[in-house]
Every structure is written in C-alpha cells, then in structure tokens.
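May I ask you for just one protein sequence along with its backbone structure tokens in two labelled lines?

_____
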Amino acid sequence: MKMTNAIMFATALLLFISSCRKKDDLSAPDVFVNFETAAQGIAAAENSITIKVKLSSAATADIPVVLNVTEDDVIAATDYTTTPAISSGKIHLVIPSGNNEASFTVTKVAGRLFDGDEKIGFDIFSSGAPVIIGAGKQLTLSFSELVSANTGNVEINGGGPTYPNKVFIDISANRQTGVNRTNWDLGFYTGDDFRVILNSSVGMMARQINKNDLATVTAADTIGFANEVMFNQTAPTVSSLAYIDYPDGDLNKTAIAAVSATASENKVYIVNTGKTIGATPTDRGWKKIRVIRNAAGGYTLQHADIASSTYTSVDIAKDADHYFKYASFQTGAVNIEPEKKKWDIAWTYFSNVTNFGGGEVPYLFQDIILINRGVSIAKIMTTTKAYNDFVAADITSSLTFMTTQNAIAADWRAGGGPGTAPSVRTDRYYIVKDGNANYYKLKFTALTNGNNERGYPAYEAVWLKKD
C-alpha cells in the first residue's frame, strides 16, 4: 500500500510538472520596441517635432528606454534642444505601464538658421526587461522637409480595439499625429464660409430648435429627442440622418446651418455629444449651443448643459494655416488637426451612413479612412494593373480622382459586421495626390497588429512623381 501511494504521488508530481511546463510553453509573445518610422523631417517653417518609440503591445510595467544621439552638423543647446534633455549623449524615456509608446520633442533654438543638410541620428541603446529592441531601432531626423520615396510598412497607432485615437497621416513626411477622439466637440471652418462641424468620431448629433437665446432653453425643449437624435446601431432610422454631418464632408450638408452674419438668425441647437471611449461606451450627455460670428471675423461659441441658466462663451479665430479650428465643451479652444498640407489621410472611428434597404441611415463604423481637403485619390483594381507594376507613366487622364472625404472610407477592408471576420481587401490600392502635388501609390497591408489587435492597421506608400 505504501508503495502504491508513493507511485501515485510520483505520478501526480510528474503530471503537475508537465502541466507547469505546458503553461510555460504558452508564454506571451515577445514585445519589441521600435521607432515609429526610420526617418522624419522638420521643415523650415516648423519649430519643433515629436518623435515616438513604440512597443508592439502595451507595457505591463514601466519600461525604461535609452536612446543614443549622434549629431551631424548640429550641436545640442546651440542649434536645438530636446525634451527630455540629452544627458551624456543619451535621452532617457519611460513607457508607462498600460501604454505602448513614449515620445520626445526636438525644438530648434530660436534664431538659428539651417541649410537643410543637418541631421540627428537616434538609436535605441537599451530597454527594460522583458522588452526586446526591434529591427526599427534607428531613426534619422533631417532639418529639412522630408519627402519619403517609400514609407515601408507603417503601423497606424489607433490605440487598440476601442479606437481611442483619430490619426492624421502625412504620407510624404512619413508622420502620423494621433489625437484622443474625445478631446474636441466642434470644428470651425477657416475658409470664407462660416460652417461648423460635429465631432464625427464620437457619434455626435445636433438638432436645431426655434429659439436663439440659450437662457430660455430647458430640458423641456428636448422632449421627444432621445430616440431620434442618437445613433441606434440596432434599429437606425432615416429620420435621424438630418442630425449628422453627411460623411462626404460637404459643408452644405452639415447638421448645423451656416452661421449667419445677422446674429438673431443663428438658432440654438440641442446636441447629443455622443459616446465615451471604452469596451462599454457610455453617453457623454446633452448640450445646448449657439454659434455666432464675432467682431474679429471668427466665431463665438455659446454652450451650456441643458438645465443651466448661464452659459460659457468661447471665441475661435480663423487661421489660414488650417482648414478647421476646434473647441471642446470642457477645455475651450483646442489644437487638433495638423496644418492644411501636413496631413493627407486620417484613420478613425466614424459617423457614417449605410443602407439596409430602406434608405440611408446613420451608422457608426470602425476603421474608416478619410482624405483631407486638397487631396484626391483614384482607386486601382489589381485586375487592371498590379500594385508593383504601377508607375508614374500610368497616371493619365483616364484615372478618376475623387475629392470627397469618404472616397476611401471602408472600401479598403471587408467584413467586420456581425458574424463576419474583417480583413484587408488585397484586390485594390489607391493613387493619392497630396496637397503639394506629390503622387503616391498607397495600399493597406494589415487590419490588426502582430497580436491580432484591432486599432493598429498598417499601410505602405511609394512616391511616383510630382506635378
């Protein structure tokens, strides 16, 4: 009996050890740290630039990263500074737990002149365990406008499966700018017209009421709105279409009418501010707003909670360097999108439309690609010409270029709906003409990152010619 018990114990111990080994074999995938891109350029008109290092998945603890700095015809403190500062030829960064990136800023010293051939090399020297230094460990910063001939495979940092970021992408500079999509509420057009857009990345809607004094608007004015001025993914209605900005970007089809020069003609709008970001988004609430023109030639936004008897005013100036300037109900005027010619496409969660057979209805989409004003795109099917075979000479008058902001939209991907696994469409690519008349061929290469997480798509672009 004792021998039997010993054998049983030994067998159990072996099974336990074997089980542990199997669990160890199922270890998490390696986490790599890389620069976001191999090259960036700081143009003559720019004072500073932000450079990012990224992890292939979110850090489970604070991860220190040390960069070596190599100067070519520039001197720290004399020609430029960095934040954090360079110490003994190195920059020390920390990627916080729960995050997948850290950044530093390079700023030109005021009054310094650059010839355009100055460069700084950055090299990832070390990283905290268990993070491994990846193949993209080097980046060259040029003190001149960078026109990338081939971007290579670029991962877009959308922030993960809850799509927290709207990401503006400058193809020629191989640069992306991610902004949390709850950082703003309204955009104000800087051109000749006076138009206001909603934050389409959080599902906002707006409905005009026949009042032009915020103080007289109460919760009673919203009766009957709840089921119509909202995105209903289960049972969307055609009647809700009037309360969104139409997704093609036409400023004549916005939920908020043109801002009149006659103040009394500008009505109050009840605004559903959409949803928060997260696995289970919640309502951001309702606002009452009114927009008028101000004496300085810009806008004045008046806004308040529905039940408030007072309101807050925010002035938004027009700015010729941007297509839109932005305001947040929480923080006032905010900087969101880059300058006009500093971005070409944007990846975002989006207030779109679809048709289930009864007409177009508002419907929220993931992984939407928008194009900037001043940018145009043409779609090429691989049955017409393979991506690798398309050259500058193929850009002829026979191509149909589109300028609506949703010219790509969800066309680059397939599926993603109930019961349908999403995937990149490999049978098409796009020719992009940017705001500086550079032509690129662009294809999307991934819908997820190496860990199969949504919110990290990827693309590749190759320069073809400049008009």
Notes: The CA atoms of residues 172 and 313 lie 39 Å apart. Confidence is low (pLDDT under 50) at residues 1-26.
